[in-house]
Structure formats: structure tokens, C-alpha cells
């Protein structure tokens, strides 16, 4: 079942001597929705362009279904491509746009008509075939771009930030739809984005890139639950990143480095790394100890003062200063026990050792 | 206050338009003059002068001008697109210098160019080339900067992602040129070509050196005629060629030239 569709073997790319992608190794199995996620300048778009064939790797090999692509021009790679600015052909109707790929391959008129119909139906745009792109909304244009890319049935679809020009509501709706389309077609999607929420929502697997290398890859949940490095913890989701040191006293304990006496933290993850420099605690995994009896399992207790309260609607975001001047961001449900925390009041925070994640730098 | 400003604004517009169109209107009116003096009497007019235009004396130069202008438009259109393609799209080595070279004829006065071309042809012993072939070549040199520049601008505004999208859809280079690049730059190229036609059709300072006696273009014939006589035929000739040029512009606009370019869209 899991044949490898795309394989990058020690791929590097430099522009004018400046390395942008460094010794990248990546396997993308058939039918997976893989997101390449990272901040701008991390090399993700360069990687996509190398897979598409618009950039030639400085070193290494790109293989599609086992065949090296280094000498194959982009038009012979049989990969679909969706651009951030849609890149629809303005002088062609929607149907002509969608049929373009098949027309270039010399497919017969009637076969093109059938394929165009199917592609437009799968993106729910049937009925707009005779329009010109100019007469469509941004969301519709993006669907046309998607239909155009899938109409020739490429083995892999490459998407370069395809949703970032849409407004938030539409973007969220399109996430779900994109995922559905991908599952229906069973096509491999390689999705480049800087939006971690987008990547979390759609992907089977996320490849986090930073400074030209893969910082971490895995399922969205595992990346969120177990960020490997400080960068990943910071980039994916929200987090409190605290400077710590492994404790001489043995595994299971960390010293939180503050100005005064070190604070001892229990963590279930200390065994994993030898050079511990920081730990990550997600804001939603910190509890307010309003009822100590219920929260007995939370072995880490920290006292602090609420410095700021931001009402996010469903949640309250608290900024709590604990001893040593360290600030922790805490997310609690708004309706929690009907009691609203007060500004400047003293609270006790409870943290499960499971939730104290250890990071290497 | 704002009423005064609005009034002045419209007054300025009307004055400018009047200044531009009044001489044309006078010429149009004069072409209907009932006497052989260039006058205008609103209740007495005649089409006779236009009848004179069908005489060989005017018809031959007109046809020659149309022939030359058409060939100039086609040749400079093809060369201009090729040059712009090499310079902007392929970015061949030294493309900036190439562009500067192609635009350089603009900086030489036409009269100097005319003299230079005559001298050049005499020196290399190609006097026989004077007349229509020399006119075509000279007009192409004159029109090429405009065509190249307009094609280059269209190409520079061309979204490279369109090309990449077509490529990812399996289009070869030839297919991309045919189906994507050329249709996209068509408005710019067509306006360049229209301009080349007009430049050639109306040219005097360069043509005056290159025509053969008895085989002259329309503007040169007009100049020659003016030296000896001034009568309403002149006005009729001018009105007719004005109408012709407007028709040409209209036709090119119909196939997606000027206005599309001016309004910044394709269709």
C-alpha cells in the first residue's frame, strides 16, 4: 500500500552561494497529505520548486516513483501545481483553463469535455464553465486552479500556500474541502504553508522546516504533543518555553532556572535527552488550582500573581508571574466553575509532569 | 468656492479640446468649400474635391503609403516581438545593451537619419535601393523602438506563474508561447503595430529623402502639391487620410489592441 511517491535524497540548494536547503532527506508515501511547514525563508517553497522542476538541486536527487527527476523538465514530470495567486489563464474560460493540460497532451475533444466536467464537479464549480476567471470570486478562482491541476490526473499535486489569499472564513471552509477532495481522489498532496493551523487541520503528516533543514516530521498530533526542538515548540501552537537544567538528583526532575533559588519541576520526559536546555508547557495544560482536591494528580504546584487577563471568548488567557519574574501564559475555559479569576490575585498553578515537555536546542 | 473651481475645471477641458479639434474642424469644413479658395460657407458646399481624390494623382500615393505602412507594421511587429522576447523573456546576455541599441534611433533627428541613409546607400553602391525598399527599411528602423518597447512592457508585466502553471500542465515551450505568452502580450503588440502603421503612413522628414520622383508617398505628395497651390483638395486629402487612420485604429482596437492596453486588461 505505502509506495513512495516522492523521495528527496540528500537534496541541497544554494542561490549565489547561500545555502537555502541543506541535505534534505524526505519520503512522501502515495496518497498522503503532507504539509511542508515553516516560516518564510525556511526553504519550503524552494523545496517545492525543486520537486516541480523549476529549480534544479545543487546536489542530491529527487525521485518520483523511484525514477530520478534531475534531468526531467517540469512539463514531463506529470505533477499538478496550485499557486498562491491562482495563475489562471485570463484569456481562457474556466473550461478552457481546466482542459488546458489535457489539450496540451493531445487528448480528444470529447474526452477533455468529460474530464473537465468531472474536475469541475469535484470542486463544486459545475455551471461556471463558460465564465472567464475575472468574473469569479477569489474562492472560485482557487477552485478553478485546483480543478485545472487535477484534471490531467497527475500522480502528485503540489500546492504552494493556495489558501493564503482568501479571507479567514473561506480559508477554514476550504481546508476541510481540500482534505475531502484529496481523500476522494486518493492523490498525494504536498502542501507548502507557513500557517501551522492549516497544516494541523489537513495533514496526515507535517514536515517542519527551519533554516533549510527538517526540524521535525510526524503526525500533527505527535508534533504538537512532542515537539523535538525549541523552534518546533515555539512555531507549532502556543507554548511557554522555560530555561531548565537536568537535576543531579536523578531522572524525573528538572531545575527551573530563575534568579533566586531554582524551582524543582517534575517531568515524565527527562530520560529522552541528555542535554536539556529548556522545557515546553502548553498554555492549555496548566490548570488553576481553585479546587486542590480535584486536581490531586497535578504534582507541580507553582504560586503566581495574575498580571493580565485577555478574554478570547471561549477561553481566558492569563499571564501569570511566578517567582523569579518568570511569566507563564495560561489558557482556561471562560465558564470554569463560574468563578472568574481576578487581576492581581494570587493563584496556584497545577501542571501534570506528563505535560512538561523537554526540548533540545 | 467649489462651484467656481468646478466651472474653471470644465472650462479648461473645453478650451483644451477646442484648441485640439478646431483646426481639424476647419480642415474638414474647408474640404467642402464651394470655391477653389479655402473657405467655408455653411449653406454652400460640395463633394467635388473628394471626387478629385480618386484621380491617380492622389490614389497612387495613397496606395503606396498603405502598402509601405502595412509592410512596416508587419516587419516591425515580428522583429519587435522577437527582440522583446529575447531581451525580457529569455534575458539573453547583454539584453540591456541590446534594448538600448534598439531604442537609439529615437535620439537621432529624422532629417539626420534621412541624410545618413541616403549617404550610406550611395557609399555602398545601392542607390537602386532608394524608393520603396529604402522607405520600408527606414520606417522599420523608426517604428521598431516603439513596437519593441510596447512588446517588452507587456512581457515584463506577464506573470511568470502563468508560464509555470502551463509548464506543470505539460505544455512544451512552443505550446506555451503559442497558447499563453503570445495571447497575453497581444494587446501590447497590436498597439505597437498600429503605432508603427501610423508612424510610417504619416512620415515626412525621413521619407522626403528616400522617395523616387513620380513614386511618392501620400504625405510627400501633399507637401509637393502645397508648394505650388493651396486649394480645398488638400483639405479633402487630409480629411480622407485622417478618416483612414481612425478606421485603422478602430479595426485594431476591435481585435484587442489599443483600448485593452490603455485600460490595462485583456478581455
Automatic annotation (TrEMBL), chain A:
Pfam families: ABC_tran, TOBE_2. GO terms for molecular function: ATP binding; ATP hydrolysis activity; transmembrane transporter activity. The keyword Cell cycle does not apply. The keyword Endoplasmic reticulum does not apply. SUPFAM superfamilies: MOP-like (SSF50331), P-loop containing nucleoside triphosphate hydrolases (SSF52540). Gene3D superfamilies: 2.40.50.100, P-loop containing nucleotide triphosphate hydrolases (3.40.50.300). InterPro entries: AAA+_ATPase (IPR003593), ABC_SmlMolc_Importer (IPR050093), ABC_transporter-like_ATP-bd (IPR003439), ABC_transporter-like_CS (IPR017871), Mo/tungstate-bd_C_term_dom (IPR008995), P-loop_NTPase (IPR027417), Transp-assoc_OB_typ2 (IPR013611). Signal peptide: none annotated. Keywords: ATP-binding, Nucleotide-binding, Transport. One of its GO terms (biological process) is quaternary ammonium group transport. GO terms for cellular component: ATP-binding cassette (ABC) transporter complex. Residues 6-236 form the ABC transporter domain. Belongs to the ABC transporter superfamily. This is Fe3+/spermidine/putrescine ABC transporter ATP-binding protein. It comes from Pararhizobium antarcticum.
TrEMBL record, chain B:
GO terms for biological process: transmembrane transport. Its main location: membrane. GO terms for cellular component: plasma membrane. Residues 62-252 form the ABC transmembrane type-1 domain. The keyword Cell membrane applies. Keywords: Cell inner membrane, Cell membrane, Membrane, Transmembrane, Transmembrane helix, Transport. It comes from the Bacteria. It is found in: Cell inner membrane; Cell membrane. The chain crosses the membrane at residues 61-89, 110-130, 136-158, 179-201, 233-252. It is a multi-pass membrane protein. InterPro entries: MetI-like (IPR000515), MetI-like_sf (IPR035906). Belongs to the binding-protein-dependent transport system permease family. This is ABC transporter permease. It comes from Pararhizobium antarcticum.
Amino acid at each position: 500500500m505505502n509506495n513512495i511517491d516522492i523521495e528527496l535524497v540528500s537534496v541541497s540548494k544554494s542561490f549565489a552561494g547561500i545555502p537555502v536547503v541543506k541535505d534534505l532527506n524526505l519520503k512522501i508515501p502515495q496518497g498522503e497529505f503532507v504539509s511542508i511547514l515553516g516560516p518564510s525563508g525556511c526553504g519550503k517553497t524552494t523545496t517545492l520548486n525543486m520537486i516541480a522542476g523549476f529549480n534544479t538541486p545543487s546536489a542530491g536527487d529527487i525521485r518520483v516513483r523511484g525514477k530520478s527527476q534531475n534531468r526531467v523538465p517540469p512539463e514531463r514530470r506529470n505533477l499538478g501545481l496550485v499557486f498562491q495567486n491562482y495563475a489562471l489563464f485570463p484569456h481562457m474560460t474556466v473550461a478552457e483553463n481546466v482542459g488546458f493540460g489535457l489539450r496540451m497532451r493531445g487528448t480528444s475533444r470529447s474526452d477533455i469535455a468529460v474530464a473537465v466536467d468531472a474536475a469541475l464537479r469535484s470542486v463544486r464549480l459545475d455551471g461556471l464553465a463558460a465564465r472567464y476567471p475575472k468574473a469569479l470570486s477569489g474562492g472560485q478562482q482557487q477552485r478553478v486552479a485546483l480543478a485545472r491541476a487535477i484534471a490531467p490526473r497527475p500522480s502528485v499535486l503540489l500546492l504552494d500556500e493556495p489558501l493564503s489569499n482568501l479571507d479567514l472564513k473561506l480559508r477554514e471552509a476550504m481546508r476541510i474541502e481540500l482534505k475531502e477532495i484529496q481523500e476522494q481522489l486518493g492523490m498525494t498532496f504536498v502542501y507548502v504553508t507557513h500557517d501551522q493551523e492549516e497544516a494541523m487541520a489537513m495533514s496526515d503528516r507535517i514536515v517542519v522546516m527551519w533554516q533549510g533543514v527538517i526540524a521535525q516530521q510526524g503526525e500533527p498530533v505527535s508534533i504538537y504533543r512532542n515537539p523535538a526542538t525549541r523552534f518546533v515548540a515555539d512555531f507549532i501552537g502556543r507554548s511557554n518555553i522555560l530555561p531548565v537544567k537536568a537535576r543531579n538528583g536523578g531522572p524525573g526532575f528538572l531545575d527551573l532556572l530563575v534568579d533566586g533559588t531554582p524551582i524543582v519541576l517534575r517531568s515524565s520526559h527527562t530520560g529522552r535527552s541528555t542535554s536539556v536546555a529548556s522545557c515546553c508547557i502548553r498554555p492549555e495544560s496548566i490548570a488553576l488550582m481553585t479546587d486542590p482536591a480535584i486536581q490531586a494528580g497535578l504534582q507541580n504546584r507553582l504560586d503566581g500573581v495574575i498580571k493580565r487577563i485577555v478574554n478570547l471568548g471561549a477561553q481566558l488567557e492569563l499571564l501569570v508571574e511566578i517567582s523569579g519574574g518568570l511569566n507563564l501564559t495560561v489558557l482556561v475555559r471562560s465558564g470554569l466553575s463560574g468563578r472568574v479569576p481576578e487581576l492581581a490575585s494570587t493563584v496556584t498553578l497545577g501542571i501534570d509532569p506528563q505535560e512538561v515537555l523537554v526540548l533540545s536546542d | 468656492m467649489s462651484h467656481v473651481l468646478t466651472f474653471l475645471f470644465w472650462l479648461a477641458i473645453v478650451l483644451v479640446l477646442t484648441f485640439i479639434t478646431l483646426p481639424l474642424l476647419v480642415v474638414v469644413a474647408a474640404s467642402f468649400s464651394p470655391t477653389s479658395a479655402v473657405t467655408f460657407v455653411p449653406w454652400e458646399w460640395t463633394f467635388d474635391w473628394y471626387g478629385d481624390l480618386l484621380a491617380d494623382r492622389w490614389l497612387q500615393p495613397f496606395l503606396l503609403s498603405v502598402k509601405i505602412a502595412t509592410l512596416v507594421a508587419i516587419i516591425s511587429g515580428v522583429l519587435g516581438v522577437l527582440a522583446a522576447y529575447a531581451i525580457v523573456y529569455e534575458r539573453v546576455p547583454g539584453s540591456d545593451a541590446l534594448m538600448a541599441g534598439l531604442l537609439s534611433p529615437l535620439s537621432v533627428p529624422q532629417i539626420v537619419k534621412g541624410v545618413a541613409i541616403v549617404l550610406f546607400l550611395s557609399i555602398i553602391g545601392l542607390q537602386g535601393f532608394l524608393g520603396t525598399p529604402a522607405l520600408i527599411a527606414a520606417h522599420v528602423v523608426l517604428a521598431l523602438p516603439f513596437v519593441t518597447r510596447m512588446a517588452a512592457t507587456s512581457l515584463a508585466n506577464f506573470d511568470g506563474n502563468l508560464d509555470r502553471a502551463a509548464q506543470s500542465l505539460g505544455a512544451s515551450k512552443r505550446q506555451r508561447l503559442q497558447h499563453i505568452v503570445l495571447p497575453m502580450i497581444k494587446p501590447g503588440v497590436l498597439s505597437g503595430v498600429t503605432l508603427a502603421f501610423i508612424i510610417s503612413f504619416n512620415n515626412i522628414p525621413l521619407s522626403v529623402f528616400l522617395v523616387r520622383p513620380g513614386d511618392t508617398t501620400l504625405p510627400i505628395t501633399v507637401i509637393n502639391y502645397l508648394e505650388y497651390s493651396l486649394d480645398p483638395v488638400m483639405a479633402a486629402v487630409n480629411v480622407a487620410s485622417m478618416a483612414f487612420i481612425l478606421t485603422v485604429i478602430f479595426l485594431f482596437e476591435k481585435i484587442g489592441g489599443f483600448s485593452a492596453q490603455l485600460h490595462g486588461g485583456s478581455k
